[in-house]
Design goal:
Helix content is 48%, strand content 0%. By secondary structure, the chain is mainly α.
Length: 100
């Protein structure tokens, strides 16, 4: 599974993540200090504090989360560029999935 998203309001994302960090009563002070800094510097870190993979997949029948990891990169989005034609990529990926 791969997700592609656009951060439309960095301040709102960062603010929500900082609230989550502050509300975590079990987080040690040293880790909280590090988390605040990480969330302010990187949108992917902010997102990681807000999205729990187990919550995303916990209710999906027949699926058990084995491992979750985060990676991110910033890219310039050009909707007219061929590389962003995601429908075409999906069609090519699933050509072998068709069974007679």
């Amino acid at each position: 599974m791969e997700l592609l998203l656009e951060v439309t309001d960095n301040d709102q994302l960062t603010g929500a993540a900082l609230e989550r960090v502050e509300a975590d009563e079990f987080m040690p002070d040293e880790e909280r200090t590090h988390a605040r800094s990480a969330v302010r510097e990187d949108e992917a870190e902010a997102l990681a504090y807000l999205v729990e993979p187990v919550d995303l997949l916990g209710q999906v029948p027949g699926v058990e989360l084995a491992q979750a990891s985060w990676s991110s990169e910033q890219v310039e989005y050009d909707p007219d560029a061929e590389m962003w034609d995601l429908d075409e990529e999906d069609d090519e990926d699933h050509l072998d999935d068709v069974r007679p």
